[in-house]
Design brief:
Blueprint: H1 2-73, H2 81-109, H3 117-147, H4 153-161, H5 166-187, E1 189-195, H6 197-202, E2 206-207, E3 210-211, E4 223-226, E5 232-234, E6 240-242, E7 251-255, E8 261-265, H7 268-271, E9 277-282
Parallel strand pairs: 1-9
Antiparallel strand pairs: 1-4, 2-3, 5-8, 6-9, 7-8
Helix pairs in contact: 1-2, 1-3, 2-3, 2-4
Length: 283
């Protein structure tokens, strides 16, 4: 009888122990989950505060750069004044763009954050207001520099837009300059050739007494020149005749010490106005 009475008590004690153990495990899981949530919130908060601090540091650096421009502008005759202004204006452009990007990232984060939304929104609004004020101040500074005839047009365009990436804009400007340079070179390019009658016929430049009438004449046989630079062409012959039409009075055929002809172009603009191709027959 004692054994029968003791056995149920043991079973009840065992069940009670299991319940306690499960309760402790659930409590531990809840604590772990809560700690994880706290850690995630702390991490998110630290990241947000880090971004805000970066924006504030950007404002501070911009203010310092503006101060250096003011000092340089106070002594416009200094040899390094213009260089200092350009360097600091370029820095301001980049720093303001970085601040704008950081604020945009904070505004996006505001949509999903679990941090105090109202307080964070107020902080971001204050940063936007600071950025707008600083943008106005920089524009005023640009106007002041323009009045003093300081050439900062490239920097001024970047400050006005504030959305252009500095490196991309520089690359774009460089490409435009190369294009203009190439177009300018093509505009002042011309081609000449000199040779005997047989040589010119062989290259289909001269056919039945006509010059450059055939569409398949050998263009590679010509030499390309810059009309602004190349104004004399040595013909290495004691006999020379221009087969293409060029205005009289724009050139002379003179002889060198060896009695060989040299074509001297005295009025390049008029000389090349009729044709960009020059064909000379020599013997």
């Amino acid at each position: 009888m004692k054994k029968l009475f003791f056995l149920p008590l043991c079973l009840m004690a065992l069940v009670a122990c299991n319940d306690v153990k499960k309760a402790e495990e659930r409590a531990q899981m809840e604590r772990d989950s809560l700690l994880q949530v706290i850690d995630e919130r702390d991490t998110e908060l630290n990241e947000i505060m880090g971004s805000i601090n970066e924006v504030q540091e950007g404002f501070r650096l911009i203010n310092e750069a503006e101060g250096r421009i003011t000092v340089a502008n106070g002594n416009p005759e200094a040899a390094s004044s213009r260089e200092v202004i350009h360097e600091n204006m370029a820095f301001i452009q980049q720093a303001m763009q970085q601040n704008r990007d950081r604020i945009a990232q904070l505004q996006e984060r505001l949509k999903t954050t679990t941090v105090n939304i109202d307080k964070l929104k107020k902080t971001i609004d204050n940063l936007v207001a600071q950025l707008d004020d600083q943008n106005k101040h920089v524009q005023e500074l640009e106007a002041q520099l323009a009045e003093k005839d300081v050439q900062i047009s490239e920097q001024g365009e970047q400050i006005t837009s504030l959305a252009e990436n500095v490196s991309n804009l520089q690359a774009d400007n460089q490409q435009k300059q190369e294009t203009i340079k190439a177009q300018d070179k093509d505009l002042h390019s011309a081609w000449f050739v000199f040779g005997t009658k047989a040589e010119l016929k062989e290259q289909k430049i001269l056919q039945k007494g006509d010059v450059l009438k055939a569409s398949d004449f050998n263009r590679d046989y010509f030499t390309k020149i810059d009309t602004r630079i190349d104004k004399e062409i040595k013909l290495y012959s004691k006999s020379a005749e221009l087969l293409t039409s060029h205005p009289a009075g724009t050139y002379v055929l003179a002889k060198d010490a060896k009695g060989q002809y040299v074509l001297k172009i005295t009025d390049p603009n008029r000389f090349w106005s009729a044709s960009k191709y020059l064909v000379i027959q020599v013997k």
